[in-house]
Records
---
Amino acid sequence: MKHITIDVLVIGGGPAGLAAALEAKKQGVQEVMIMERDVELGGILQQCIHDGFGLHRFGKRLSGCEYAERFIQQVKAHHIHVKLKTTVIDILKDKTVFAMNAEEGMLKLQCGTIILAMGCRERTRSQVFIWGTRPSGVLTAGTVQRYINIEGYLPGKKAVILGSGDIGLIMARRMTLEGISVEGVYEIMKSPGGLKRNISQCLIDYDIPMHLSTTVVHIHGNNKLEGVTVAAVDDKRQPIEGTRRYIPCDLLVLAVGLIPENELSAKMGIEIDPKTKGPVVDESFMTSVEGVFAAGNVVTVYDLVDDVSITGEIAGRGAAKYLQGKLNQDTHYQMIHSTNLINLVVPQRFRKNNLENHLTVYMRVREEMKKVYIHGTMNDRVCLHKKLNIVSPPEMVVSNIKKEDISDKGDITMAIERG
Amino acid sequence: MKNKILKAIQSHEELAHYTIHIELSKEGIVTLRGEVDQWQHVVDIGHIAAKVKGIKNVVNDITVKGITIPKKDRSEEIRKVKASGHVRTCDVVIIGAGITGCAIARALSKYQLDIIVVDKNSDIAEGATKANNGNIHPGLIAKPGTLKAKLNIKGNAMYTKWAEELHFACNRTGSLGVVYHQSEWYLLKLLQFMKITRLGYLFKPLRQAMKVPGLKWLSGQEVQKLEPHIEGKPCGALLMTTMAIVEPYDVCLALAENAVMNGVSYMLDTEVIDVLTEHGQVKGVMTDKEVIRSKYVINCAGVYADHIAEMAGDRFYTIHPRRGAIAIFDKSRKGYFNRPLVSFSRTRGKKQHSKGGGACMTPEGNLLWGPTAKEIPDKEDKSVERTDMDYIHALGNHVTTNVKPSEIITFFAGVRAADYKEDFIISMSEKVDGFIHVAGIQSPGLASAPAIAEMVEDMIKKDQGCLHKNVHYNPIRKPRGKFRHMSHQEQDALIQKNPLYGHVICRCELITEGEIVDAIHGLIPATTLDAVKRRTRSGMGRCQGGFCGPKVLQILARELHKEPIEITLKGSNSYVLQKDNRR
């Protein structure tokens, strides 16, 4: 078994991992390594041939591949070690990592710090309880995207899409362009799950109907998908009798949400936030295990790759500071709470001493609201007060709280107040 | 007797108004005809007739208004196969590559017999075998006095040797029948008293139950000690130490592979369209591809056993399909319970002819809730409904309310092959020599399989007078190393030997390319995505093949020298891809 010692090991070569590795290196860490299961860097971005990536960061509409390429070039230029086709199978609390590939066999790595950047996976039909049979032709949107964009195959002729998250919307357009007829997009919630720009560019531009408060209730066909039954749902998301409609189709595309991929994290005993399904992180995106950081969609699912890259950089900087002994770990954590209109908040806690200029807080709201105030309080004192024209669940709210507005003691409570 | 049956039917308010025609053969076979309003009534009437004393079995031809179950016209196919002139010969044809078919094939491979197993599906274990909870029941619940009860107890004991020889996972965990009410506890204690004093043997209905070995009575405290996560405060439990858990498709594969090692041939994707007989003697079968002439035909066709029996001209039972749905949970709950648990206190459904389920687990550590039991008209109906899941959830809730439906990674259904006597039918045909019925094999068919195979083996031995031993017979199927169960050192050594083991394909279950390639080139080759899944577990984890599906499909295409568009999920027309859009 080959033994390797490394300062920063980044697990996952997607947007979060790339940004994290690069930042750690830029901060002066000697030996940085990215470990990637796939045959190339870039993660899921490599199958995202549509544009719209990097608007914030580069001010340009890049494709996923182009966005990844910009980071990959820099990773190469900065002499970061990259191990492709290598899968991490075990992480121990003392930061020993076991990984394997075909060329070298089992690798045992002793790491100064670890950055978890494994991304997320897609929810399946069983997790959203779609009844019926189990034929072929029921695929997640990401899998369909892979088949079409990477492998070059079409998995059907007539498709129904369940879920109006961004991947579902983008696949509606993509499939239409490839000659698959898309019958419609069905969304169980009252409002769409994806970004507004995707609804306009992927559905409206192609005359693909979206059915809100409607879901797929039954899958038909024992071997090959023959059709689905859809139905409108009531306030409790239960199908309304009399609204059932059978749609013949040979492809059901599921875009029903993403779940952070934290099997390795949970196995090594990292505390997981039940709301985000990702590790509880602090201002430097350090997890509950000292010296182990997390970045990107493994922490919580972001809407924009730009945010994923930013969290990668925060974690990369944190890892570098940790190695250099500059990360304060003496003081107690101060917590960030949220009220019920906010679904989740990242990071969940912080140490004020480690903040540079401000604390960036990511929040996802429960429902669409117009003309609201985002409100942060600390010991009955306001530390953030910002007006927002609109907030909605598909778009994460990002707020910076100035360091000088943060007290030395006490927790922060984030709230949304209707204007 | 006819009147007795009529009277029994009419005594039910719901059924009284139907006109049912009853025929009775001198062998005690009842044939029912008529039309009713709902499927459940067809089943109810069948059961009522079967219960009448002296009735051997029931052929139920009652139809339901508005439901036509189409019967395939095979005459054109039969003509074609006849015209093709393709004929092969062997000694024994086994119809059905499920657990019983494969067990019988292996048992008979001890002798100098040329054996062919045919199955219409693209893989073995595609029927009820793949879709049950893998419980090797102790034999207490099967109705005393039935063939089921006898073979269950016997088969259960035989599993130890099977597992040793065939190297499949078989964990003898024992199971707990938990009671929460004092009154039920007294009943169980009474059973204990009768067992200890051997008093139970005096009561005919109890005799079989008294033969179940390894029963222990535990106090509530002892139960909580064994199962710390159990719900509430049980009064006590019956520990059935002989319960074992297996992966049913794994057992079936082990049997099939060992049978192949010993000379048995498998013809998958091959459907029997006729049974050939001459002068009361079976002569073989006609498949959709060719004629196979043989001395014996063994009918292990599961839900279709009655159709095959009809082809042979000896239809004396009807299989009424009973669907069972099961939910499977994420492995992260591994070890939550240590053994299958069922609450004896729950109120069972009034028509619970098969065992209702409870909470159990797979040898790999996934929790399983279920199965349900629902009578359905369509033998192919493997759908799962919301009501199934509600029932499954209630079953689980009896022993814990801490496992949430959100932890379910998938649910599925299987169809049990129940006849109206609700017992196994294992016998040489009385009308066609050499045709053997192995029908009505529902729960506890998996547990009984070794004993069923032995029974059929004895039947052929007796019929044949003398069978020559296959001198090359080897009961041992080599252990199959599972990458995920190895130490990192062992894993490293394996990768150094074959780099394909260094490439992880399924990350949820840690399955390597090496294992997938092995499965594709195994003794029973895995040729579909689902077959690879059952051999290796790739796609069985929490992402359900979202990540590994496309990769496994590529490997299948590469190894089978096929185009990716030719690869199916589970045979037949279950293609995953439509066309290559880049060429």
---
Amino acid sequence: MASIGKLNRHQARTAYLFITPTMLLFLAFTIVPVVMALYLSFTNYDVVSRMDFVGIDNYKRLIDDALFWQTFKNVCYYAVIFIPLNILISLLLALLLNFKRFGVKLFRTMNYLPTLTSAVAAATVWIWLLHPEFGLINNLLSYFGVIGPAWLAQTETAMFSIIMVTLWQSVGSNMVIYIAGLQGVPDYLYESAKLDGATALDRFRYITWPQLRPTTFLVSTMSIIGALQLFDQAFVLTQGGPGNVTKTPVYLIYQQGFNQLQMGYASAQAFILAIAILIFSFINMRATKSEESIV
Amino acid sequence: MTTYSVQKALTTVLFYVVTITISVAMFLPFFWSLITSFKPSDDIFSMPIKWIPTKLTLEHYRSAFTTVPFGLYFWNSFVLAAAGVLANLFFGSISGYAFAKLNFRLNKPLFRILLAAMMIPGIVTMIPSFYVLKHFPLIGGNDLLGAGGNGFLNSFWGIILPGASGSFAVFFMRQFFLTLPSDMMEMARIEGCKEFRIFWNIYLPLTKPALATLSIFTFQAGWNSFLWPMIILNDPEKATIQMGLQAFSYNHQTDFGPMMAGALIAVLPILVMFLLLQKYFVQGIAFSGVKG
């Protein structure tokens, strides 16, 4: 018995030694920052000199900050269109490319390639694709006799362009996750349903979709967290314009904090955004009613 | 019988028409930027579209590297991404091993906290992390209390350290170590093997597929990151390829040839890596996405 106790103690010592670097980094760059985020949001920290406690002044100021709420509205508009489309398109792609047919691997790769590109590189390419006169999109539209808009420069189409670019970039990886999910659905469910005379649509509605719930939960949660933090594409494609219609909360926080050095105020904005992300994730959790936890 | 086979042939045709249309549409932006980057400047703005350039030229690639120090940006990004990979592989696997294979009282609670942290959106820690890096004690001219200097700002460490041991790396490696049997460990202990050697010489070599997948994920994340390097690095000599590319599209609004050349160069390393390690990559996504 004594030697087992000794072995356990030895094991525990080794284990603590092994996780120490990770835990120190985790403490310095996650735990401390999370606690500090809350504290900073009650100060007027400006990098240079000040860091006085100002109570809820930042939050009071937020309530009347029209630009802040505008960025929120922008990103909600983006999320409401982007997330369902993202799920729908990647699921349809997965259903299509889950067939075992000649060339399917190649098609999967072609659909997956956009996810490998960086947001900046993708946006750069799309600036050219969406060029009002010489861009590919408007040229293709002109074959059908449609005169395309100045995509990135018009208030009506700017956000739509960003949705298009981010969809192009993200459906591939979600498709792969859905394909993996589809392959986890047991075959006997389909076979017995076929025996009962269920149509393809029935089989999707009563077997595939419910079985994919954990996958949908994963995909939608990641989409929500990602969508509400939209920045890179908005920064490169439109610089938040025209007329702030594509300015997002992260963009505003970046400008407020790192250009105007109002870090205390920016922290308050970040905190409100984080709470919003939490609320949306929670609603999503209830909506997809996933019984098993994913992480 | 014949109606059945006709129906089957029709679905096959439909399948290929739909898939090929979608796949080509998804691939079109790559193709379009590729031909743009090789077109002579006159062809770029010719109407109607010239799908096949009159002649191929490398002029845009040359100007991409001469108008901005693109080679330097490429190197900076490479160093940052490679450092991120090495750090995550080592710290992620050693911690993952401890959480999967060793008994200690705080195993479960600490792991749960790490996992919960994966849900925290990056924007929350952005400003405080900046503060922590700026006021890191005894670094970059700072005193013991973290005052006076600039800490890790404007240094590559400011990028490397916060991402050196991500929760995801630990989680991912732990899941993989869990699938390995524990009796090898006990055998080695009886033989008198030291704990670090058990990890390093026995278990780590068995996780090669997981390490390969994690390398690709980490490299891609490091190579593609934009906002954080933009915040930390002010010195133009230290700019990354994403920052360079962005500046490029902003300052040279009409030079679409060099812009497309630059964008393709920025995507190339990831693309090559993906094509080489495709098998691991898809496995890894399936693994991390579903098994959870």
